[in-house]
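Q: Please design a sequence for this.
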């Protein structure tokens, strides 16, 4: 199964999250691409191209966004972090209000990166753009 995580290439929090997933994803279940890139434009409907949203695309047909994407990624990664799936009991619209609040203010907390960092050579093959 092909799983692509689309992220804001200039967001320091997204960069941290991608690095975390790379470290924990021992079986290489995920590929990565910035929302600002060519692959995102080719594979995602335009409604999902907002850089304020993390997007998980599974097998080029199932799309998860925002808190649903994060919880799906956590579920796939498994391990002790699955305890965070308890947040599934919170209605999606409530989780996404909190997600949107953080997304709108993330550059107030930390300034955006000047450019999307290049991946390390050992994981570069997992980045599509």
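A: Design:
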């Amino acid at each position: 199964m092909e799983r692509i995580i689309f992220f804001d290439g200039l967001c320091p929090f997204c960069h941290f999250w991608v690095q975390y997933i790379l470290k924990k994803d021992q079986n290489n279940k995920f590929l990565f691409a910035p929302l600002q890139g060519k692959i995102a434009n080719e594979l995602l409907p335009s409604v999902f191209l907002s850089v304020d949203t993390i997007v998980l695309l599974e097998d080029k047909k199932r799309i998860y966004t925002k808190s649903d994407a994060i919880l799906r990624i956590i579920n796939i990664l498994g391990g002790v972090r699955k305890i965070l799936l308890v947040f599934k009991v919170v209605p999606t619209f409530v989780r996404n209000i909190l997600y949107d609040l953080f997304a709108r203010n993330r550059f107030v907390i930390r300034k955006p990166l000047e450019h999307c960092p290049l991946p390390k050579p050992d994981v570069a093959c997992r980045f599509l753009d």
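Q: Thanks. Anything notable?
A: The chain has four helices and four strands. The longest strand covers residues 3-7.
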